[in-house]
Glutamine--fructose-6-phosphate aminotransferase [isomerizing]
Amino acid sequence: EKGGYEHFMLKEIHEQPKAIQDTLTGRISEDGKHVVFNELDWDQNYANSINQIHIVACGTSWHAGLVGKAVIEKLTRIPVNVEIASEYRYADPIVSKDTLIVVITQSGETADTMAALREMKKRGNRVLAITNVVGSSAAREADDVLFTWAGPEISVASTKAYTTQLIVFYLFALFLAEKRNTCDSQTIADIVAALRQLPELAEKSLESAPIVQQFAQQYADKEDAFFIGRGLDFSVSLEGSLKLKEISYIHAEAYAAGELKHGTLALIVEGIPVIALATQTHLLEKTISNIVEVKARDAFVLALAWEDDTQVESTVDEVIRLPRTLDFLAPVVTVIPLQLLAYYASVARGNDVDKPRNLAKSVTVE
Ligand code: F6R
């Protein structure tokens, strides 16, 4: 059942190219220039009426929501909040009838996310669920549903569910941008074309495994690690950090790279592993200056940079080269080496990778 892999997590990491393909299938027009969501029968009037979006989720799904916010805001200029479900449900959120609620949950059963869904429906808001499980509570109770089609995810640590959630957010943002006319058709066609390349690029990103494995083995006895990045790289840093903590039990923190000097630099000491995500070209100079700051404190820096990078390499100890796509789509290829890092660190420490202590796959208690 593990298809020759030692753990479900490794199998599911490797299933990502196919999962991404399955998520895209049927959602791109024949001419390859538009997004089609047959499952959303939204007319122009409804699409135009949305004046605010609240994305509500827990854990890894919340991290996907952070990327969703950036992507939707960039393409549609609709203001988006990303909320942690266990906070949101008690926060008396400020919404109007034109606020769209998007809940995102792999299992479709997470208690806090479901409570938020029910509360917002009761208030009369339209709720869209992004979920992986057909027939789940979220799928049944939401007004609209977009499935991620990742296939069953067995490992407690979420991998292919996250990447397919990202794909759904890209598609959804493009769909809204087309309906609301906030993007020119060439930009939309270019992004759609780049999305179609992602299964192949995810496959290439998996080729980072040997470097990642070596790094993980070398640093498996450390008790702390930092992940830094700016913009979308920061959102993915949060996910990389959670994954590492969750299954290797190494304490990790993700920092917006520019925040380090606001209290954290003292913790950057000799030999501490810092994983620096450096894919956002418009922020690269700033990220590099943050890398230089941690290098000055003798951290060991592993960077994730584009395959054609010429700037990051000279400032770090080791580089993982990512297959080139649009900066905007970077999270899909960047997260894969980070999943592998958590995986190999967990294996090196002799942990039960697929069933980390004290965690359940679907959290149906509050
Ligand atoms: C982390 C992980 C959890 C889940 C969270 C939400 O690897 O799996 O953080 O993402 O419990 O679960 P869903 O998406 O099922 O609502």
Q: What stands out?
A: The chain has a mean pLDDT of 97. The beta strands are 52-57, 80-84, 99-105, 127-131, 144-147, 224-229, 251-256, 273-278, 300-306, 318-322. The first strand starts at residue 52 and ends at 57. The chain is about 45% helix and 15% strand.
